[in-house]
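Here comes just one.
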Amino acid sequence: MRFAGVILVLLPFASVAQVLAPQYPGGYKGNFEEDRPWEEQKAVLPPYPKSENLIKVDVGTATSFEFFVDATAVAVGQDGVVRYTLIARSHSGAMNVSYEGIRCKTRERKLYALGRGDNTWSLARDSRWAPIIGSRANRQQATLADDFFCQFGGIARTAEEAVRALRRGG
């Protein structure tokens, strides 16, 4: 009877401890890096690209544009995102300039800013992460991810490593 009384006294404490304890399937896990939610670092816009810093990127024949990456704007962030300036030039000479990011771990892309005619940046209105698909519409991001920035399922360790891969052609 005395044992039953002790259990009745301790029962409320056990239920409170259960509510306050972190719930993990399979048991307790410590506060390890892989358990923390991913946080994107703030993107800092680079200087506007100059033609002498551009590296041509071959994305195949599925597009009528030529694509270039500004070698001075490639950055590999602590957050696992490769950021770069991309230039798309049509055969008539029209150019689209964008500052973008690729998150290798999730195979996603993000548009941070668009270039304007006066060589300044305009922040993107929609800067959500979107999946990279190998369609004609974003073949350039798929090529950059697969052949240069996210090789072998990882990520370029440094900006220099990513630029070397671009210069080599993949």
